[in-house]
Specification:
Two copies of one chain form a homodimer. By secondary structure, the first copy, chain A, is an alpha/beta fold. The first copy, chain A, contains nine helices and twelve strands. The radius of gyration of chain A is 22 Å and the shape is elongated. Strand 2 of chain A pairs antiparallel with strand 2 of chain B, so a sheet runs across the interface. Chains A, B: InterPro entries: CinA, FLAD1_M, MoaB/Mog-like_dom_sf, MoaB/Mog_dom.
Chain lengths: 252, 252
C-alpha cells in the first residue's frame, strides 16, 4: 500500500429514469461511503441517459483519469439495457457471452422458466472481461480492466461492491469527524477558515440546516491522519466555545 | 414556443459531501421533475468536488452544449463555498458585490446580528450576473446567461427554481405514463422492444423491483405526444394481457 498517493474513482450513473426525476439515485452515496473504506476517493460522478455515445464519453473520460471507474444501471435483459454494448464499442471490443455467466444464469433460471434469449443478454460482456459475482439475482457484474459495471438496483449493486471489498488497491482511508453546532455558519466562517488553514491535511466542510425552527450547521473535518483529525476537531471546538457556541460531537 | 426542437439542460452538483457519501443528493430528482414541466429535458449531470478547476470544467462543458446549466451548492458564507469564484474565473469575469443582493442581505440580517463580512460573501456574483430571488434565507441565487447558480440545501434550491417557473423558453413537456406488472422483465423483453419499435416517438423504460417476496417491473412510457403515449400504453397492456400478465395503470 502506498501511503502518500491518493487513489481516485469516478462513477457513471446510467439511466433515463434518474434524469427524468422518476427514480432517486442511491448508488452514489452507497458507493462513495464504501470507497472511503477502501482508501479510494470518489472524485467525480456523471449521470447520463441510455445513449451509446453519452455512456462512451463518460466512461472513457472517467476511467482514463481515475484509478477506477464504476458504472451503475443498464445491464438488465431489456432493450433499454445498453451499457455493455456502449462500453465495448467505446473500446473497440466485441461483445461475447461469458461462459461462467451463462452457467450462473442457467442455474438461477433453471427453476424459473429457463434461460430465454432475453435473459441470456445478461451474460453478455465486452470481450476479455471478467465477472463480479452477485448472490441475489444471478446476473453478475462485469469487470473490464479498471471499469466495474454494476447493476442499477441499489441492493444488487451493494452486493456487487461487497464482493469487491478489500480486493482493490487503495491508499489510506479518508477519516472524518463531525461537530454539530446551533449557530448560523455565517457567524463562525472566520473560525472555520482559520481552523482549516492551521491544520495541514485537514479539510473542513460546513453544512447548514434548519431544524426545530432554529439554524445550525454540521462541520465535517476530513483527513487521512487520525491524530491530525482529532487535534483539528478539538481546536475547532475550543475556538467555538470561546465565542459562546457549544459543539455536539458526532453532529446534530 | 418551438414545437419540434428539444430543449436540454445539464446540472452540476458541487460538493465534497455528496462525493463522500455523507449527504444524499436530492436536487437532481427535484430539478429533473421540474424541468420536465418546463418542456426542458435534463440531459446530463455531473457531481464535482469543491475544486475550482473541476467546477469550471463541468460548468463550461454543460453550459456550452445545453440550453441551460444549473449548479447546486457552494454559495454559502464559508471558505468552502467557491462556486461563484470558480464560474467567474472560468469565463474570465471579475467578482462583484451585487447591490440588490447586498440590500436583500442587509434587510434579512438586520434583525439577526447585522451584515458581517462572511455574510456579505453571499452577495458576490460574477460581473454582470442577475439574481434569482429566494424567499427563505435571504441569500439569492444567481443567473449568468444560461447558467443558474442555486443553493445546495434542497428546500432553498426548490424555492429558487419555483421562482423561475414559466420564465424559461422550452419545448413540449415530456409526458409519461407507467404500467406496473408482476412479471420478471426478462420474460417480456421482446414485447417491450416491439412496443417501442412500433410506436414512434415513444421510449419505454423497464424498471424491475423485488417486493412482497415477488419480482415485478414498472414500464415507463415517455413521449411529448399525449395521443401516442396513450396508444402505446394501451397496446402494451393488451400485448401483456395476451400472454397472461395483467398490468396496473400508474405502476406498482
Amino acid at each position: 500500500m502506498d501511503d502518500t498517493r491518493i487513489w481516485t474513482a469516478g462513477i457513471v450513473v446510467i439511466g433515463d429514469e434518474i434524469l427524468s426525476g422518476r427514480t432517486q439515485d442511491r448508488n452514489v452515496a452507497q458507493i462513495g461511503l464504501w470507497l472511503n473504506l477502501q482508501g479510494i476517493r470518489l472524485r467525480e460522478v456523471r449521470v447520463v441517459a441510455d445513449d451509446m455515445a453519452a455512456i462512451a464519453e463518460a466512461v472513457t473520460t472517467l476511467a482514463g483519469r481515475n484509478d477506477y471507474c464504476f458504472t451503475t444501471g443498464g445491464i438488465g435483459p431489456t432493450h433499454d439495457d445498453i451499457t455493455v454494448d456502449a462500453i465495448a464499442a467505446a473500446y473497440g471490443l466485441g461483445v461475447e457471452v461469458h461462459p461462467r455467466a451463462r452457467q450462473v444464469l442457467e442455474n438461477y433460471y433453471g427453476s424459473r422458466g429457463g434461460l430465454t434469449e432475453a435473459r441470456l443478454r445478461m451474460a453478455r460482456v465486452p470481450a476479455g472481461a471478467s465477472l463480479i459475482e452477485n448472490r441475489i439475482s444471478g446476473a453478475p457484474g462485469i469487470r473490464l480492466d479498471n471499469i466495474f459495471i454494476l447493476a442499477g438496483v441499489p441492493h444488487i449493486a451493494g452486493q456487487m461492491i461487497d464482493a469487491l471489498t478489500g480486493t482493490l488497491p487503495g491508499g489510506k482511508p479518508l477519516l472524518s469527524t463531525t461537530l454539530g453546532c446551533w449557530v448560523p455558519e455565517s457567524e463562525v466562517a472566520d473560525i472555520l477558515r482559520h481552523a482549516e488553514r492551521t491544520h495541514e491535511g485537514c479539510q473542513i466542510g460546513s453544512y447548514p440546516f434548519f431544524r426545530e425552527g432554529k439554524v445550525g450547521a454540521n462541520f465535517v473535518i476530513r483527513s487521512t491522519e487520525a491524530d491530525g483529525l482529532e487535534r483539528c476537531a478539538a481546536d475547532l471546538a475550543a475556538e467555538l466555545a470561546d465565542v459562546g457556541f457549544e459543539t455536539v460531537p458526532g453532529g446534530i
